[in-house]
Amino acid sequence: MNSLLRPALSLILSMTLLTGAAYPLLVWGVGQLAFSTQANGSLVRDAQGEVRGSALLAQAFTDERWFHSRPSAADYGTLASGASNLAPSNPALGTRVLAQADQQFDAQQGPVPLALLTTSASGLDPHLPPAAVNYQVPRVARERGLAESALRALVQAHTEAPLVGPAVVNVLALNQALDRLPSQSR
């Protein structure tokens, strides 16, 4: 029996050390050396070095001076992330979407883009389609006393074209750039 138990325990111990310690440490080390920013959460910092968020997570921007992110079923919290799971036939979804549409509707621009009314699958998507961001330009321009053309140029400069999928704008990065606009253009 001892001849069977000893190799089995040795194998368990060696595999535990290999897969439970050595491999995770190797992956962590490679991540820190080759992809330090991504491995540490893709944190976004302001001019003073303060962490303002992550480029990978949406934030709630409620002040009218900012571009707003899409709604979050998880209230932008990472612990409860996930979709609302409300079916299109659910009256609660229709009520919520109509209330948000009424709140954001601008008669001069027409219907509110769907991305400003519906949550993403995770509830934490930091991106919006350019049309949804451009819909907000008149409000932000009015609140900040900026020319709409300057804001549209800023949106265009922050529009990303991923390898796969439609163009998107990271709302946190756009709002940070908005905050850095020179005071003479305000």
Automatic annotation (TrEMBL):
Similarity comment: Belongs to the KdpC family.
Pfam (any one): KdpC
Name of the coding gene: kdpC
Identification of the protein by name: Potassium-transporting ATPase KdpC subunit
Task of the protein: Part of the high-affinity ATP-driven potassium transport (or Kdp) system, which catalyzes the hydrolysis of ATP coupled with the electrogenic transport of potassium into the cytoplasm. This subunit acts as a catalytic chaperone that increases the ATP-binding affinity of the ATP-hydrolyzing subunit KdpB by the formation of a transient KdpB/KdpC/ATP ternary complex.
InterPro entries with a match to the protein in the record: KdpC
GO MF term (any one): P-type potassium transmembrane transporter activity
UniProt topology in membrane: Single-pass membrane protein
Keyword Nucleotide-binding: yes
Subunit organization: The system is composed of three essential subunits: KdpA, KdpB and KdpC.
NCBIfam families: kdpC (TIGR00681), PRK00315.1 (NF001454)
Principal cellular location given in the protein's record: membrane
Keywords: ATP-binding, Cell membrane, Ion transport, Membrane, Nucleotide-binding, Potassium, Potassium transport, Transmembrane, Transmembrane helix, Transport
CC terms in the record's Gene Ontology section: plasma membrane
KW Iron-sulfur (keyword) present: no
Organism placement in taxonomy: Bacteria, Pseudomonadati, Pseudomonadota, Gammaproteobacteria, Pseudomonadales
Subcellular location, record wording: Cell membrane
Transmembrane residue ranges: none
